[in-house]
Write a structure and sequence with these properties.
By secondary structure, this protein is α+β, with helices and mostly antiparallel strands. The chain is built from six helices and nine strands, in the order αβββααααβββαβββ. A six-stranded antiparallel β-sheet has the order 6-5-4-9-8-7, covered by helices on one side. Strand 1 and strand 2 (61-66) form a beta hairpin. The longest helix has 41 residues, at 2-42. It starts with a helix and ends with a strand. The model is unreliable at 2-25, 27-31 and 33-44 (pLDDT under 50).
Length: 248
């Protein structure tokens, strides 16, 4: 009888010893699965092509990735410096200050390089003047976006610098900008104008650069950019339901 009780206790003890191992094993498997899922979620897209765009010392890259959600299965991806939430807010403040304080005559600007130099100097003085808490290593990122938006063609500037792109087109707000690539033909990009106001302002800027005027009364223009590229654009929802459009 005692032997039977002892065997039962021993059997129970063995079960207790086995169960934790099983639990540990299950936990290990679960962690491995979670780790694999996390790696899958954070995995950097596999680029079919990747090249550095000419832009001074900035690390601006662009390439083509396979994207099953995109029309044709390919997407053109532009990789620009990443601003933290705090730096993004600082940049928005700097943009507003530049719009009110920047009083340089266009006749005084000798070239785009000169404009870039003046803009960097102005941003540096404003950071000191308004005591904006921006880490030194991030000032170059803010300079990049300021120069991109104020001196060049904003969001589409990286596309303009890729010699493999023959055409750039925007069909409205919240629609990816499409390009015509010399090798891979038509494909969407990761660049989007998310608000009507943003796209309308961009259209007005493009018209101004071309020496033209665009308005709701005269919403269509066909002109040439300073580099010789032809541009057709429409303003607002009067011509197209999706908002302003352009093709370069």
């Amino acid at each position: 009888m005692r032997l039977k009780i002892f065997k039962e206790k021993l059997s129970g003890l063995q079960k207790l010893q086995v169960e934790p191992k099983g639990i540990i094993k299950e936990d290990k498997i679960k962690k491995e699965k979670d780790s694999k899922n996390e790696e899958k979620d954070t995995k950097i897209p596999q680029f079919m092509t990747l090249s550095k765009l000419e832009w001074d010392n900035n690390e601006i890259h662009a390439g083509i990735i396979k994207d099953p959600t995109a029309k044709g299965g390919l997407r053109y991806q532009v990789i620009e410096p990443i601003l933290s939430e705090r730096d993004q807010k600082a940049f928005e403040i700097i943009k507003k200050l530049l719009m009110t304080e920047l009083t340089v005559s266009l006749q005084d600007i000798k070239s785009k390089k000169d404009a870039e130099r003046r803009l960097k100097k102005k941003i540096s003085s404003m950071i000191k003047k308004y005591r904006l808490n921006i880490p030194k290593k991030n000032i170059s990122k803010i300079n990049y976006y300021a120069i991109r938006d104020f001196v060049h063609l904003g969001k589409i500037e990286p596309l303009m610098r890729d010699h493999m792109i023959e055409e750039i087109s925007c069909d409205g707000t919240n629609i990816p900008i499409y390009i015509w690539h010399r090798e891979h033909e038509s494909m969407p990009t990761n660049i989007i104008f998310e608000k009507d106001a943003e796209l309308n302002n961009f259209s007005r800027k493009m018209a101004y650069i071309c020496g033209k005027h665009v308005s709701m009364a005269d919403p269509i223009i066909d002109a040439s950019l300073p580099n010789g590229s032809r541009i057709n654009l429409t303003l607002g929802h009067e011509i197209t339901k999706r908002g302003s459009t352009f093709t370069i």
